[in-house]
What does this fold into?
Amino acid sequence: LPKGREAVVEAAKKIIDENLAKEHALDEKVKKILDENYDEIEFQHADERQLFFMIKKKMAPEAGVIMNYDDRYNDLAHLILDELYENYLAEYDVNENQVKNVIFKSFKAFADAYDEIDDIVYEKIKGMEKEVIPGSQDYELLYERLYQEELSKRGML
It folds into this structure.
């Protein structure tokens, strides 16, 4: 690492943060659409989580967000690898594809752990005696608290 570990971390973080910012902006647009149509969603007894995903999937290409996570991790791995190469941040004696695969597998393992936590939290909320409406402030607060607890249990905070 000619310019040090911190330079590599900073470059990767910048790429990841830009990607996450795009997705966050898309999520906010989708939430706004759901909020604007709340009465109709309630009247139809529609699954808000499923609607959120369907709308997000439809709007993703326009927002520059890749919805398929394997494709997304692959894209991020390429972007990071290009950044490392173009700015002389890393030197390696192996095939470029091997380096990209290491980056990809790191994303995959990290995301799988968070997906598992998300599923656990969703099931906990779903199994509660008191119904909490997805998208409501109570739901968001409860979700965040339970999510943080699961992260703490796994030492991921």
User: Anything to note?
Assistant: The chain has one domain: 5-153.
